[in-house]
Recover the amino acids of this structure.
């Protein structure tokens, strides 16, 4: 409860900060709209030549693209700004200030910074998904719940992976490139993970779970994910979260403030 | 001028050799997106019995391998650097030097391409084998590819600089360059080979400069166009390069008067 209050506080201060630069904010929103409409255009061009892509019709593809922007938007809303700041803290030795505060350091560091405008990306992603859903007839409460669960699991998976990756900053300090590669791999999530050839599909499902994080929620809402698959996803996400948190704690022991 | 360039090259090569791992990682950027769209088109072709219009699966593979190579050779990131330099006032010392800032960018780009080309070719060889690419290019195509990719790269570079120069007026060009990048995404042959773009979009791609940056050199390397068409396309590329060169001269001359360091 206290953590939720803190989260709301962080969110509010970051929102106030962003509202100081209104023209920039408007331009960012324009960019988000342009990027998402051109991506939808790309899907439409593909479907100009086919009605189905590996078992995904246009409606399902739009749902998938919507999920892609929901997941990517979540990453850019809170994870990317927070983890960038975290790596800077390690480099400058200012992580001390977070460690000394009377709350979980992992929470204070990894969910601290927001790019509030990215809510626009998530919102527009939701619109794309809803348009896609309009073309799919079957949507019961079961699918809706499964979708919500799968999407949260997707967020958790992305969080866990970023946490594990950024932990390397404790030893190597500068790992911006590693993170940059991660964000560019995220791009692969815009298509169903099963279209990729073997080696790439394995990478996208395990090492970089973006394929899973985007594809499974889209499958869940179109009623193509069975209960067993959902259970595996939930257990896997929880395991990933616990393991990456443990790893972070191991890394933290190697942290030294400046001149220590 | 040759001596100046030699000195710049030495400096840039020394700078680049400090960041070897980084250049290999950044090279992946040119590969990831083409492979994504290659996989998508292969899925479309398989759904349609192995063929989409004039492209079968192996043609798509050849096209996107060629496109990765071209994007790596023809793309530059100057707009982002330039905005930063204008915003931070770091352009000031560069303007005082006797050499136009564009020369630093030219050399930096060429050196970057030289350091990434070998790892890139290894990765692309791997992709080509995975997707069983088939190139139809004849030796003539390979010869024509050289001027075509140079012109495509020059066009993308000059276009990027014209966009970047708008930072003189707006300070932030991020939004403008996003628009530009997305136009490249749609029209330059990233989401589909130019031949497969639906009617109106294909016309736009070939009327505006975008298609000539990446798509045209890639199609020539792949061997998708016959030799006379290839030569015609190269001629159009040359015209666009000339237009953008002239445009940059004008925009730069007017824009640089707008520039003020912070505190001026």
């Amino acid at each position: 409860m206290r953590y939720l209050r803190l989260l709301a506080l962080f969110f509010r201060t970051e929102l106030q900060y962003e509202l100081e630069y209104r023209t920039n904010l408007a331009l960012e929103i324009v960019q988000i709209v342009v990027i998402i409409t051109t991506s939808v255009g790309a899907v439409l061009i593909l479907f100009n030549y086919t009605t189905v892509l590996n078992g995904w019709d246009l409606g399902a593809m739009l749902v998938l693209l919507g999920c892609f922007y929901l997941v990517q938007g979540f990453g850019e809303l809170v994870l990317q700004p927070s983890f960038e700041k975290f790596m800077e803290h390690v480099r400058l030795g200012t992580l001390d200030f977070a460690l000394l505060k009377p709350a979980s350091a992992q929470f204070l560091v990894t969910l601290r910074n927001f790019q509030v405008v990215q809510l626009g990306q998530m919102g527009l992603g939701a619109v794309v998904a809803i348009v896609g859903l309009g073309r799919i007839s079957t949507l019961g409460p079961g699918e809706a719940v499964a979708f919500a669960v799968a999407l949260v699991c997707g967020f958790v998976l992305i969080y866990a992976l970023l946490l594990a990756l950024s932990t390397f900053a404790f030893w190597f300090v500068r790992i911006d490139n590693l993170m940059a590669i991660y964000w560019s791999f995220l791009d692969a999530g815009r298509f169903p993970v099963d279209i990729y050839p073997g080696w790439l599909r394995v990478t996208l499902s395990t090492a970089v779970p973006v394929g899973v994080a985007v594809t499974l929620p889209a499958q869940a809402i179109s009623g193509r994910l069975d209960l067993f698959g959902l259970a595996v996803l939930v257990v896997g996400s929880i395991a990933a979260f616990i393991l990456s948190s443990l790893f972070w704690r191991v890394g933290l022991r190697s942290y030294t403030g400046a001149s220590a | 001028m040759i001596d100046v360039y030699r000195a710049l090259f030495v400096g840039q090569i020394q700078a680049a050799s400090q960041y070897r791992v980084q250049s290999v990682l950044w090279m992946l950027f040119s590969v990831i997106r083409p492979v994504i769209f290659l996989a998508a088109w292969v899925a479309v072709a398989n759904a349609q019995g192995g063929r989409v219009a004039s492209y079968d699966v192996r043609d798509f593979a050849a096209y996107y391998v060629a496109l990765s190579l071209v994007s790596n050779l023809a793309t530059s990131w100057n707009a982002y650097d330039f905005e930063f330099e204008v915003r931070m006032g770091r352009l000031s010392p560069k303007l005082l030097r006797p050499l136009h800032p564009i020369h630093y960018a030219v050399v930096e780009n060429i050196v970057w391409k030289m350091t990434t080309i070998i790892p890139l070719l290894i990765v692309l060889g791997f992709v080509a084998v995975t997707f069983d690419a088939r190139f139809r290019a004849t030796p003539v195509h390979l010869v024509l590819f050289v001027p075509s990719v140079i012109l495509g790269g020059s066009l993308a570079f000059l276009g990027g600089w014209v966009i970047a120069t708008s930072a003189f007026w707006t300070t932030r060009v991020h939004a403008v360059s996003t628009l530009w990048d997305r136009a490249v995404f749609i029209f330059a042959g990233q989401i589909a080979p130019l031949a497969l773009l639906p009617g109106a979009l294909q016309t736009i791609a070939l009327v505006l400069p975008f298609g000539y940056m990446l798509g045209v050199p890639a199609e020539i390397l792949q061997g998708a166009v016959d030799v006379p068409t290839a030569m015609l396309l190269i001629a159009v590329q040359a015209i666009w390069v000339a237009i953008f060169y002239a445009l940059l001269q004008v925009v730069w001359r007017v824009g640089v008067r707008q520039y003020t360091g912070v505190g001026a």
About this structure: Residues 227-258 of chain B form the longest helix (32 residues). The two ends of chain B are 32 Å apart (CA to CA). Chain B touches chain A at residues 21-22, 25-26, 28-29, 32-33, 35-37, 39-44, 46-48, 52-53, 130-131, 172, 174-175, 178-179, 182, 185-186, 191-192, 196-198, 201 (CB under 8 Å). Residues 2-257 of chain B form one domain.
